[in-house]
Amino acid sequence: MVKYLGLIALLLVFVGCKSAESSSTTGSSTAFLEVQKYHEAVRFYFKQDYQSALNSSQEVLKLNPSHDAALYLVSKIYFDQENWSEASNFLLKAGNADPKNQYITREIGYMYSATGEFKKAGEIYEKLLKAHPYDSEHYFACFENYLKAEDYKGASRALALQEKYIGASIELCLNKHRVFQIQQQWDKARETLEKGLVAFSMEPRLLAPLIDLYLEQQQTEKAMILLKDLCFADPENGYARYLYGNYLIQIGQSTEGQRLVNESVLLRGLPIEKKAEILLNQNKALGCEEETRKTTLAFLNQNPNEFVANTLAGDLMLKCDQAFSALGHYLKALNINPNAFPVWNPVLMIGFREEIWDSLLNNSSRCVELFPLQPFPHLMLGIALFKLDRIEEARVSFETGRNYVINDPDLEAQFMAYETLTSSRNSSSLKATLNGIFQKVPKNFVLKAEIAENLIPQTELVTFVDSLIMSCIQHDPNQGYFMALKAKQCYSQTNYSLAQEWMEKSIKNGYPERFGIAFLGDIAHVKGNKTLANQLWQDAAEKGNCSYHLRKKIP
């Protein structure tokens, strides 16, 4: 309603001036008093002194019951006071007092429309457009109100008059189509759009509904010809590209079709859920390619505050082996929706695998607060605490989380093994306990390797650790992680040449280069070559190593 305030103020001045003009002509004292009281009422109104404004207006109406400006002002006062009945009553009186005043008549039309009396509103606007046939805004209001009133003859009359006085237009063609479509007169609706395309060639607003009609009538070939035209006529129409791309895929033109489908992601028209689905399929099919990176990050730039855009970017960065970048995207997604537990899993796993213990501590703590009955966050929290030498807190976390494990022997074994590491027991007891745990999950060599890595610093367990590592290597001789463990064991025994040999071999077999290079930097450092060590550590950081261990070493 705010947009009408300026118009109402204009009306008050306009009608008031008209009254002033007529009073000066008559020169009568009564007419002068009318003008004086009317302007007094207007001043009170703009001061929001509604009662005084109403009193002054009533005095005007006592002198002249047909004073249209005063009647309109009273209507406006009641309107501001939300007395809709009296506001309508006096607005109609103002219209009767000056039936040729198009401003008041238009307000009456708006009043009927606002109260749901659409047919009456349409009739009012039809009178206006007949009186002022070149005023285009009356046609729109007349048509829309008749349409809402389901008076299709009235709506068609308005369109016919519009075409006669204003001329043909795309909007006129679309509105004719709407009338026929609502009445399910499909042939007339189609003919209207086809004629419109003759007059307005390649117009996207006409192409789109005609395509829909052809598809509904199973005229697929005609629809696809127009759909191709629409892709060129409206290059930002993602929905058109998506439909035409799918059609091409169905008829065997997969490459071109898939290209159009993929392009639709960055255009308008498709809902974000459909765009995310297309991106997900594209990323699964192509993996970390320049095209997928470009499209996914552009989609994220278009939708920076959308949960799904951030998770898709995180998923792709993981495929591209850019774990720290993935972590940032996942955390942004969790800021948008922290209750999305499935997204917490990669966040915690990144902290664990990348050895970012401080980040893992913070994120697992948040996750435990949100999901206290989920075991995995407790495990990650315990590991982070253990790696940061907060052993007693780690033990409590392992004990707590293990109580929530249900029907998952491997996860339960992982809890038990880490809990064993936090307990103060002698070497024989510790080995016996761990061997008992490993027997429960004999195929879980990753757990053996994990525990062996944590036991490497304990010299009294060197034989036990060596047996664990060798059993892992024998199980999978080409696993880079197992080779890296052997390198770390050799390093702990100061056999740096053999450690370097094993690490270089592990990198060739898939162990992340960012970790391998950092380890080689450690070897250079203990050998006294600090320059080479710093260079290798910097290289590791540039390759994405953000580990807690490395960050403490880089100068």
Give a topology summary.
Elements: H1 3-26, H2 29-46, H3 50-63, H4 68-80, H5 84-97, H6 102-114, H7 118-131, H8 136-148, H9 152-165, H10 170-182, H11 186-199, H12 204-216, H13 220-233, H14 238-250, H15 254-263, H16 272-286, H17 290-302, H18 307-319, H19 323-336, H20 341-353, H21 357-370, H22 375-387, H23 391-402, H24 409-422, H25 427-440, H26 445-455, H27 462-475, H28 480-492, H29 496-508, H30 513-526, H31 530-542, H32 548-551
Helix pairs in contact: 1-2, 1-4, 2-3, 2-4, 3-4, 4-5, 5-6, 6-7, 7-8, 7-9, 8-9, 9-10, 10-11, 11-12, 12-13, 13-14, 14-15, 16-18, 17-18, 18-19, 19-20, 20-21, 20-22, 21-22, 22-23, 22-24, 23-24, 24-25, 24-26, 26-27, 27-28, 28-29, 29-30, 30-31
